[in-house]
Specification:
17 strands, six-stranded mixed beta sheet, 2 domains, mainly beta
């Protein structure tokens, strides 16, 4: 029995020790071949290669699908096997990212006091990340109400590794970054984080700047039925 455990661990370590080991295998929902709906299109502007593109269900933000990027300029994309519904897209380039996320159904009524408390809760969360930047937040004021925030979480120093190595070492000198969709609830004394949904966790070069955030209506509430829908060339740089 012990020998089997040791064999399993040795195999796991061998797989994990690769510099480019898969990090997001279980982060996104797999397309369902029984669903015939989907989205396809291209990015007209900015004229930049797409690094990643995601479709987030407007009804359930836990349902996040990863698109296929193509074209000689890496500016075309396609989502297959999507259930019928509405989706918001997140398009990530090396130096900027664009999103059309619906953060709240009702009009935003958060007060300056709410925003200060939400910021305080987010800054205290996940101490592994040394910096948190809130890009957008919307919700409703009042006890028992909820809010959502789109954030960048960054660890701007090296990280110790467990059960894996990087270039033969047990630490990584590059920075860890992720975009998160944070769901909060007003519990009376303040706002409490209910859950946080990673969207795109990566290791980044310490010399690189954080991608600039931009909101685009062109990525908001795209309807999917039972056929592939061509949404054309999206102009995000307006």
């Amino acid at each position: 029995m012990i020998s089997r455990v040791l064999l399993f661990l040795s195999c796991f370590l061998a797989l994990a020790s690769g510099d480019n080991a898969p990090e997001r295998t279980r982060l996104y929902k797999k397309p369902d071949a029984t669903n015939t709906g989907g989205l396809k299109g291209s990015i007209g502007s900015p004229a930049l290669p797409i690094e990643e593109i995601l479709a987030v269900s407007a009804e359930d933000v836990e349902q996040v699908y990863e698109g296929e990027v193509g074209g000689a300029q890496r500016n075309t994309f396609q989502f297959t096997g999507l259930p019928v519904g509405k989706y918001d897209l997140v398009v990530i380039f090396a130096a900027e990212f664009h999103e059309g996320l619906r953060l709240n159904v009702e009009p935003n009524t958060l007060t300056s006091e709410d925003l200060a408390k939400i910021n305080g809760s987010i800054q205290k969360s996940e101490p592994f990340f040394t910096k948190k930047l809130i890009h957008r937040v919307q919700g409703e004021t009042g006890r028992g109400q909820s809010a959502r925030a789109l954030c960048t979480y960054l660890r701007d120093k090296e990280s110790s590794l467990m059960l894996e190595t990087f270039e033969g070492k047990s630490n990584r000198p590059d920075f860890r970054r992720t975009f998160k969709l944070v769901l909060l609830k007003d519990v009376g004394p303040g706002w409490q984080i209910v859950r946080a949904r990673d969207l795109y966790p990566v290791w980044m070069n310490p010399k690189s700047a954080l991608p600039a955030h931009k909101y685009s209506d062109a990525l908001h509430q795209l309807r999917v039925a039972d056929q592939m829908k061509d949404i054309g060339a999206l102009q995000l740089s307006k």
